[in-house]
Structure formats: structure tokens, C-alpha cells
Amino acid sequence: MPRILTYNVHRCVGTDRRLDVGRIADVIASLEPDVVALQELDVGRARTGGVDQAHEIARRLDMAFHFHAAMTVEEELYGDAILTRCPERLIQVGPLPGYPRVPGLEPPGALWLAVEIGGQEVQVINTHLGLVPREQQIQAAFLAGPAWLGHPHRTGPTILLGDFNATASSVVYRTLASRLAGARALAPVRRPTSTFPSALPVLRIDHLFVSPEIEVRDVSAPFMPLTRLASDHLPLVMDFAVRPAAPAGG
Hints:
Blueprint: E1 3-8, H1 21-31, E2 35-43, H2 53-61, E3 64-73, E4 76-84, E5 88-95, E6 109-117, E7 120-128, H3 133-144, E8 158-163, H4 171-177, E9 181-182, H5 183-186, E10 206-210, E11 214-220, H6 225-230, E12 236-242
Helix pairs in contact: 1-2, 3-4
């Protein structure tokens, strides 16, 4: 059964304030995902020792990866990535609109891959929204619009996932749920899926949204000593199946 996870890795700095890329890779490896969406990765940044975290995690997991730099400061990069061992192709990357009334906000972005799972192509979109509610609403509307979820190439099985910095009661969540279904509500068993803060998670701000072609089998936020320590978020994991495509003319 395919498995996908989303994980805000907090630049690989744990709740013990220790920088440890290998520990993040160990968390992911223990969960045995087929596709991994990561947020808050540093690439070549002095504050985290100049390591290309996206490349190093992918190397340790023996996965291919695509990285999108949401922020560039000279040679230093910060952003999100999708990793997988499945056949994949990059569809698009890009920034999300900011909120000009609040200058200096961390720039958000999105990354879209088509991943072949069980012989069918699944559209996987990874994103990380901002912290200000009005900013998040603008970004969610943009994601729901013609550039992303309404894009003509966005057809068939689709999974949107990431750190939305917004709960399921928010305008952000409702905006995206108008285009794709919240995965947790479709799971046969409702497990705890609060992901933040990892030491004592009380907020559901990391989410998965799916199209009708995705059959959700399970959604969980693994809560164990390693996940509580490795980042300030828990990973959010979904087991799923891809429903067979309808026959042509059927």
C-alpha cells in the first residue's frame, strides 16, 4: 500500500536545539514512505553548517528529490522538497503571493511533481503557507485557483499536502477543501493528527487534501520519542490506494 508523508523539519534542528540531519532521515526511514514532502529545509546556509539538507536527506534515503527555494539570500537557500523512489517528473514550482501590508514575511512557495504509483500518475503538490491569517487566505485562494489546483494539467489523482499554519476550522482549510477533500475525514479510523508542537501536539496545522481518485486508508501523526525530538512538528502520514482509472468511454 502506498504511503506519503508531509514533515516540517525545522531546518533539521530538534526540540533539544541540536542540528541533526541524520536524525530527520532516520524518522523518515522508520516510517517507510514512498513519497516525502518536506518543509523548512536549509541549503548551503551558514546557520546550519552549509549543508544541502535536501540532498543529504535524499542521499540517506536513496531517493530522488526536487527542491524549491522559497527564499534566496546570496548563495543561501531555504525551502521545500519532494522525495521519492517512484518514477517522477517535475510539473512546476513557484512562489505564492505575500501580504504587502506586513513587510518582511518569510516567502512561501509550492512544488508540484507527477509521481507514478502503481502504474498511475499521481499529482503531488507540497506547500508551506505563511504565518499571518490574511496572508494564508491569499495564498490558499491562489493555490485553489488556475495556477495550481485549477491548472489544466492538474487532472486525475491528486494529493495536496504540507504545513498550512492553519487549523481545520480556518478559512484557509475551507478554501482548499472546496477543491479537494480533507484526508483525515475520509480515513476509516480517526486517529490523532495534531502535529504541533511535537513535544505535546495540540494543533492540526499540517494537512493532506485528496481528489476522489485517492482512497484514504489511514492518516496518523506518529508520536514517539524520535519524532518528538527531531523537529518541532510531527510528521503526518497517509496510507492510500489509487482507484483505477475509468475505462475510456465508460
